[in-house]
Amino acid sequence: MADDYGGVIGAFPYAFRHSESWLFKCYVLAGAVATGIVSLLVVFGLVVLIGATAGVPGGSLTLSRSFYILVGLFIVAPLIAPILFVARRHRKTGSDRRYDLTLALSGFVFMASVYVGLVASVPAELQTPVGQTTGSVAVLFVNFLYDLPAIYGLVPPVVCALGIYGVHRLLR
C-alpha cells in the first residue's frame, strides 16, 4: 500500500484517497490549488525581478532574488505540511479522522492568516478605502490591519505555521 505514495507530489492523491475526513479531502484540493497559485506567483515575480535587474551586476541583487524564493518557500511549506503529515501518518500508523480534521482546520486557518498578513502589510499609498458602513466588523477589522505597521503582517502566518506543527506534535 505504501508503494503508491511517491514523494511530495504523490502525497496529495495518497492523502486524498486514504483520509476518511471530507474536510481534509477539501483541504487537499484547496491546498493543491493554493500551492500552485503561490508557486506561479513566485516564479512570475522572480522572472520580472530578474528582468528588471538583468543589467545590474551581482552582489545584493543576487541576495534579493534568493530571498524572493525563500519567502515563497515559507508560504508553500506550511500549505503542504498538513497533507504531508497526514500522508505520512496513514502510511505509518493508519487512519485517524480527528488528526486529519484538525490538520485540515489548521491548514485553512493558515490560508486565512496569509490573507490577513497581506492586508496588514499593504503600503499606505496602495490601501483602498473600505466601505462606508462604519459599524461593520469587517470594516473595523480591515481598518485595524491597515493601521498596523507593515512588519506585523508576518505575525499571523508565522504563528499559524507554528500552530500546524504544534497540532501535528500534539495529536501524533
Automatic annotation (TrEMBL):
Keyword Cytoplasm attributed: no
Annotated keywords: Membrane, Transmembrane, Transmembrane helix
Lineage of producing organism: Archaea, Methanobacteriati, Methanobacteriota, Stenosarchaea group, Halobacteria
Ranges that cross the membrane: 26-54, 66-87, 99-124, 144-167
Keyword rRNA-binding: no
Residue ranges of every copy of the DUF8056 domain listed in the record: 1-172
Protein name: DUF8056 domain-containing protein
Pfam families reported in the protein's UniProt record: DUF8056 (PF26243)
